[in-house]
Design brief:
The protein is mainly alpha-helical. It contains five helices and no strands. The protein has one domain. The radius of gyration is 15 Å and the shape is globular.
């Protein structure tokens, strides 16, 4: 999952023209199989989806980290119950995202 997340964030990085690498690949007609993404760990699909939803709603758009408070609200509002390892995984994905976007 970590390798997939890192590659996915790299594809979403903005280039000098303001477009993402993903957008460049799509415009050039490069098939997704050639984008350098590792195989998606399908058994972790829900975890990835939860992370993406939390990532999109992070701290009112301030760019701060996903917090336990935001995960608690997410779980209550969506009727999701995260186990400890799932919460740890979301926080790990978040740290990777924050590091990536800090460097871009």
């Amino acid at each position: 999952m970590v390798e997939y997340a890192e590659a996915s964030f790299k594809l979403n990085s903005r280039q000098k023209d303001g477009s993402t690498r993903r957008e460049h690949y799509i415009a050039a007609g490069i098939p997704e199989s050639d984008w350098g993404l590792p195989d998606f760990p399908i058994l972790l699909f829900d975890l990835w989806e939860w992370f993406l939803l939390l990532h999109a709603d992070r701290c009112g758009g301030t760019g701060g980290p996903i917090t336990h408070v935001s995960m608690d609200a997410f779980c209550r509002l969506r009727g999701v119950r995260l186990s400890k390892w799932e919460m740890d995984a979301v926080l790990k994905l978040d740290s990777i995202a924050l590091e990536h976007f800090k460097d871009s």
